[in-house]
Give the backbone structure.
Amino acid sequence: MTVYALETVAPREQAALPQDGWGWFLSNSGWIVGTESTLVVDTAVSERRTAWLREAVVARRAELGAGGATTVVITHGHGDHANGASQYRDRGCAVLAAGGTAHEMARGVQRFPGILSDTPWGDVRMPTSVEVLEADRVVDLGGVRVTLRPRPRAAHTPGDLTVATSNGVLWAGDLVWNGATPFAAFGSVDGWLVTLDELRAEGHRAVVPGHGPPAGAEAIEQTRSYLRWVRAVASAAIRGSVPAEAALADDPRSGHPWRDWSCPERDVANVMGSMAEQQGREFDIAAGIAAMLRARGGPIAAPG
């Protein structure tokens, strides 16, 4: 069974896109296969999905006659990107991540009781050894150079990392979304917007988002526009002393380009998080998740 569709985004660069869409815990992975070594960008949420991806990397390396080691870089610590990392580490691959992500991975796989109805993920474990990237690292894979860049502030998460290639491709992780609603509850809307301004100024030709099909640099602007709306709705809620749900009713997503993006229930948690940030208080993540699940109508069914 084909679990992912493979899309060539540049010479020696392939994105793996889940065939069942970009709902909860369904994200992109991919790889850059040089003549001397290979870089895998993110894993998947489950044992089955990561095994499929790992075998696809092996097949691509054989197709290109590639040698050398395979290294895995994790763009951030959420399970749909990191859960399968041990499958590579157990086979001798180095696993790299930014400091905040390495810290999250060290806490182990999160099962989110009460949020997920089930976690049919199989044997997923976080690797016991993760190399922390504290600064930019440029690597020549052979035929393509990559720049691994840990981002200096909380954005989507406190440990975001991007991969930029000499082909002009940005592997953005969940800093960029395309056709799926971003999730900001574990990061900083303000910090994310600053980071997106930096990405926009870097001049990437193409973007592989964490969720949604690869696109041009316009995907950065789409994500930025959504987050600016989230911040504006949060500001209106604060001014009017009303809850996030009421402010969203006054400025619904139906009037915006993201009206049809998947997982609209994330809006309320995003707005609540931005309200807390603007008011200088700690975000009650449990309350945000409860509001999101009310908007959704119940727990989330995780993919296997």
Notes: The mean pLDDT is 96. The first strand starts at residue 4 and ends at 10. The chain has nine helices and 15 strands.
